[in-house]
Structures are given as C-alpha cells and as structure tokens.
Amino acid sequence: MTMRLVLSALSGLPLIRPGDDLVELVRRGLVSEAITLVPGDVIVLAQKVVSKAEGRLVNLAEVRPSEAAIQLAGEVGKDPRLVEVILSESREVLRKRPGMIIVEHRLGFVCANAGVDHSNVRGEGGRPEDWVLMLPADPDASARRFRERLAQRTGVEVAVLVIDSHGRAWRKGTVGVAIGVAGFPALVDLRGRPDLFGYLLQSTEVGLADEIAAAASALMGQADESRPAIHVRGVPYPLRDGSLSELVRPTGEDLFR
Amino acid sequence: MTMRLVLSALSGLPLIRPGDDLVELVRRGLVSEAITLVPGDVIVLAQKVVSKAEGRLVNLAEVRPSEAAIQLAGEVGKDPRLVEVILSESREVLRKRPGMIIVEHRLGFVCANAGVDHSNVRGEGGRPEDWVLMLPADPDASARRFRERLAQRTGVEVAVLVIDSHGRAWRKGTVGVAIGVAGFPALVDLRGRPDLFGYLLQSTEVGLADEIAAAASALMGQADESRPAIHVRGVPYPLRDGSLSELVRPTGEDLFR
Description:
Two copies of one chain form a homodimer. Chain A is an alpha+beta fold. Chain A folds into two domains: 6-56 and 136-248, CATH 3.30.1330.100; 57-133, CofE-like domain (CofE-like fold). Chain A is built from six helices and twelve strands. The first copy, chain A, has helices at 22-32, 47-53, 67-76, 80-88, 139-154, 208-220, and strands at 4-9, 42-46, 57-59, 90-97, 100-105, 110-112, 131-133, 159-166, 175-182, 188-189, 205-206, 229-233. In chain A, the strands form four sheets. In chain A, strands 1-12-2-8-9 form a five-stranded mixed β-sheet. In chain A, helix 1 (22-32) packs across helix 5 and helix 3 (67-76) crosses helix 4. Chain A is globular. At the A-B interface, strand 1, strand 9, strand 11 and helix 6 of A face strand 1, strand 9, strand 11 and helix 6 of B.
C-alpha cells in the first residue's frame, strides 16, 4: 500500500474578522474540496486567522508605552507602542538588535517580536497602519475548541494544529511550527524502539507537530492568507492527545540562551 | 483549482549498501508507485541512504582517538573512537554535556554528534556495533549528481533534497532539515512583496527546503529506513537552483552561540 501524506488547502475562506465562525468556514472549505473527514485527519490553521477570529487585534493609538518599552524601542528602532505590546506578551527579552527583539513568549516558546505582527491586519476604525495582531491567548485551548466544535458539526474528531512561522537560532528562514495542539502527538518518543538491526534507539524524539506544521506552512505560503487552513491526511503515527508544552524546552535544559 | 501538496513514499527500496545505485532504486520505486515525474517535482532522500551508498561508513576498530577526543569522551561519556570521528567531522564544539556533543559541522550547520550515527548501520566484517555512519562528504554535490543522473534516465529534471533530522535550540524533538539541495530554492525571499492590504512585508524569508524536509521526514518515520525516499508534488513556489549555504546562518549573524 502506498504511504502518502496529502495536504489540501481549503479554498474560499474570506478575510477573517473578529467573531467570525472559523469552524463553519473550514467546514464549508472541506465541502468545497469534496473532503469527508475521517479519524486521523488533521486540520492545520494559520495563527493569524485564529487570532483574528478571536479578536486579538490591538490599536496602537490606544497603547501607552512604558518607560521600558520606550527605552527598548530606541535601542531597536521600533515604535514604542508596538514594543509595549511585544513586552506585554513576553516573559523575557533574550536578544535585541536593530529591527529585532527575540523573546521568550508568555506561552513559553522563543520567537521574534512575541509573534506580534503588522502584516495583513486591519481592525475597525483608526489608522489602518496602527493595527497589530497578537497570538491567540491560549492556542492549545483554541485548537481544542475548534476540534470539539468541528466534531459537533461533522461527527468526526480530527486533530487540530494552530501554527505560526518562527525563525531558528542557527538556520536562516522561517519555518512553520505548532503553537497550539489538540488531539495530536506534539512529540513522538521513539526511544527504546529497536532499529533495523535490533539496536535500541537512544535519543530520538520527533517533533511531529512541528514537522506537520512546516509541511502545512509550505502549502499556505506566507505573503497572504488565501490558504490559511490546510487539511492533512496520512500522518503515519498513531494519534493521541497532545499539547504545546511537549515542544517547549524547559529553560533549565536549554543550552542556547 | 485545489492546491495540494502530495508526498508519496517510494516503497521497495532495499537496505542500501556502499556502491548501490540509488538513482536506479528510486527510479524503480517511482515506477512501482506509478509516478511519472514532471518538472516541479521533488525527490527527498534520507541522508542515511545517501551516506551508505557513498560508503561513508567507519569501523571504530580502525579509529585511533586523539588526546582531545579521549578527554571529551570522558566528559560526555561516549566512546573515544566515536568522539574522534565526531571531531573529524566538526569545525567547533559548541556545547557538551553527558551524552551530548553539539558542534558546528564542517558543512556549516549546527547539529548533535556531527550527524555521526550508530543506528541502522552495519558494514562488512568486524563487530556489528563498531560501525558508524558519517554524513555525505558534500550533500549539495550528492543532490546535484542524483538530479543529473535521474534526469539522464527519466528525461525530467526534478529538484532533490538530502535531509537529516536535527534537534533545535529551544524546542524539543527533532525535525527534518535539508543538508543537501539541488534545483530547489532553499530559501524563499518574500521581502518587499505586498501583503493583502498593500503593506510591504519586511523580513519574511521562508526556509522552504527545511519545510519540505520536515514534511518528508514526517512520512519517512525515524525508527527504520523502510521509507527513505519521498516523492513530493505541488510545492507552490517557482523552483530555481539553490544550495545548503542559503540556510546556514553565518556565525557573525548568529545571536545564539
């Protein structure tokens, strides 16, 4: 039997606005692609559409930057109000240089600008360029809710990943990573399994949710949000419940801070 | 039109040994999956089968560890002969702790144990457990040769990626990454493209080769090599030639050493 991993972009999703019913839009996208969900399927959602539907927009005109934000903004050459939002979403600033702030996000992972983004974001009223978007408040919870509501409407419990694009320490280019996980093994532990010759694998933990996130991200593209929802079939591992916390390396184990 | 990214495992590849004709084995795998190559397709090869076909096996019984290797082996609790091989493949040891050596590989990227691996490796003669496998000498060249020879036999120039599984600084779990690239844009630069509202994207470089590597890695599995070659169709970016060097962050730009 051919082993295949098939990713399909769900077309026809409109620009998402606060309060939009993302579950219904994805359900319609599945219908228009003639996809009938089966257990084992995965729905991958771009963070941006989840955040927008959840109303995680901030109008910078309403932000009063702290002293710390004003100082950091001067160091990196960013808008102090934007830096205030970034700091409000962060536990710690790990690195800063002109144009770049790398933080430990309040959700635990390390990323640039706490995931706060200007592009493809417009709220209601004010100056268009003043609107920025934060990551979902709790992406695991967003994924779980989406999974439950989609199951209510389709009768099938699928796995759900909420993904973002992150830079890496040593490699250039962003790649898709999971920031919210439901019904999916974020990490697959192969330790103790025999290899082809019976030798026990010693240290293989696979970041499966991040691998599927990267695959979906490649199909989403980055410049726009015309393909923010991807259906995935054929993940060759048994599914179980999982969470972002599996993927976040504890600070004490992190050799590269 | 439905946008789809389809990854197919090429079945029927035998255990690879030095001198094996990987191009012919992949060609047969494509035939048995009824896949006719078209321009834009990608063949993703696990590093291990490339390295094995190229004879990159080392018998530790023939390795004489240096003083430096003996000392480092004591610190991390590894076989000094294995550490000698690791050091011979490395430019610099970045971190060490019991059971783990993280290096800058001579190819420029950062990885554990210089990619030298025990699992699923057996050479001819000696004690089975003494054989280890190094990465290909020049994975970009391996990818280019594979691409040329496959084009000679099929008439179609596809893109080729040689991939390995690497750990990450801040996230748990390994993910597939490209270590050899031919006919594929390792990095896609979206800077300057307008977003949906005309705002210019400022700093989006996508690690496309790594995203496709991660996707293929998810389908390959990790515990064995029954699926070491993956055919990919539907990458939604124009292809061009590329190389590993696009993905390696120069030391001077690396904020996390």
